[in-house]
Amino acid sequence: MSAERPRLKLSVSPAAERHLRAGHPWVYESSVRGQNRDGDAGELAVVYDKRNRFLAVGLYDPHSPLRLRALHAGSPATIDLGWWQARFQTALDRRAALFGADTDGYRVLNGESDGFPALVVDCYADTLVLKVYSAAWFPHLPLILDLLAGAFPSFRAVLRLSRNIQALAAAVGLSDGQTLVGEPPAGAVIFRESGLAFEADVVQGQKTGFFLDQRENRRRVRDLARGRRVLNAFSFSGGFSLYAAQGGASEVVSLDISRHALQSSERNWALNPQLTAPHRTVQADVFEWLGGPGETFDLVILDPPSLARREAEREGAIRAYHKLARDGIARLERGGLLLSASCSAHVSAEEFWDTVRQAAERSGRNWREVAKTQHAPDHHASFEEAQYLKAIYLQFEE
Predict the structure, then answer these.
(1) Residue range 291-330, pLDDT digits in tens
(2) What is the pLDDT of residue 4?
(3) Active site residue 343
(4) Range list for CATH 3.40.50.150 in the chain
(5) So what's the pLDDT on residue 144?
(6) Which fold has domain 211-396?
(7) Which entry of 10, 158, 343, 360 is annotated as an active-site residue?
(8) Confidence (pTM)
(9) In this structure, are residues 329 and 365 in contact, taking their beta carbons and an 8 Å threshold?
């Protein structure tokens, strides 16, 4: 019988020590100065400081540049079932008062910010989607499913995997889109948000099947849309479009380059026969369509996909956001309203807001800033790298 292996111990650079003490959850491979043995994905590893004092404990991943994702820092802690149950309950309590009976689509766990690093869980009616970004979670999936079972009776669970770990997942019998609990979905899952019905492609769709993170901005658009002719650019499955119609828009145009996305928006519209505003879809490249001559609107929504997926793309993304705002403003009627949003983590909120403001200044029109927004409360971000979403609302004068 082999002896039990000693606890995996790491020592890290002085800068990494400072970051862990400040509450940052990541330790990069380049920051690891030493370890007592090789470790397995998902193993608990303890970090000791230069005086050999406990600093943090986290999930080890030998396959990732993020070598350790911290679970706890400061004083020593026992990471057992009770610890996980308490952390999970904290996440549930954080969301308990956020949604009423008209909303059953929301984020249950938001990765590091809820203390479950590299793991997201989204709820769509009776279906829970687990999006995993690190192989460190593979051995802990039974634990997560047990936690979920205690809070969500009769649920179905679908696994979604970050592209970079799919080969590692295959080696342990896991695959993207796999149903872990319950019957596999026969098609899109229908859920409700603010009284509107939407479809979520939980098996093959982007993210976990829908863009839940823009819910609060959609609600704000609903409150601003009455009597307005609305353009929803980069409309995807029509979330902003349906909310605008719910708020009393006089007409809604959904603009996207993807026919598949526009078909999804049309299906979502059909799920909501109570919406009476005329709705039209336009398939075109948004940058080209906005930059050309054409119709004008009372409310223009610009919500593109990420334009900077790496730091090297940041400057180009800022220029692209400026162009979108400039061309969107040119499509506004007098008294019109612009909503411009960004989900590019490599572009800071201030950089984004500033480039949109500059576009407004250069338009030569009188305008005022109505609001700035960031993360929805179920998508809260507890550290800088998690802060990706930002939006700004500008009102142009009559």
Answers:
(1) 999 999 999 999 999 999 899 999 999 999 999 999 999 9
(2) 82
(3) yes
(4) 211-396
(5) 98
(6) Rossmann fold (3.40.50)
(7) 343
(8) 0.95
(9) yes
Instruction: Output the average pLDDT for the chain.
Output: 97
Query: Where in the chain are all domains bearing CATH 3.30.750.80?
Result: 81-191
Number of CB atoms found within 10 A of residue 316's CB:
11
The whole-number pLDDT of residue 279 equals 98
Could you give the CA distance from residue 371 to residue 217 in angstroms, rounded to a whole number?
Answer: 11
Single-letter amino acid, residue 28: Y
For residue 216, what are its two tokens? Answer: 């609060």
Residue 368 and residue 349 in contact, taking contact as beta carbons nearer than 8 Å: no
Backbone angles phi, psi at 153, to 5 degrees: -65, 145
Contact 108, 121 (CB under 8 A): yes
CATH of domain 8-73: 2.30.130.10
pLDDT tens-digit map of 122-140: 999 999 999 999 999 999 9
Q: Tell me which amino acid residue 11 is.
A: S
Q: Which residues of the chain have pLDDT under 70?
A: 1-3
Superfamily of domain 81-191: RNA methyltransferase domain (HRMD) like (3.30.750.80)
3-state SS of the chain is CCCCCCCEEEEECHHHHHHHHCCCCEEEHHHEEEECCCCCCCCEEEEECCCCCEEEEEEECCCCCEEEEEEEECCCCCCCHHHHHHHHHHHHHHHCCCCCCCCCEEEEEEHHHHCCCCEEEEEECCEEEEEECCHHHHHHHHHHHHHHHHHCCCCEEEEEECHHHHHHHHCCCCCCCCEEECCCCCCCEEEEECCEEEEECCCCCCCCCCCHHHHHHHHHHHHHCCCCEEEEECCCCCHHHHHHHHCCCCEEEEEECCHHHHHHHHHHHHCCCCCCCCEEEEECCHHHHHHCCCCCEEEEEECCCCCCCCHHHHHHHHHHHHHHHHHHHHCEEEEEEEEEEECCCCCCHHHHHHHHHHHHHHCCCCEEEEEEECCCHHHCCCCHHHCCCEEEEEEECC
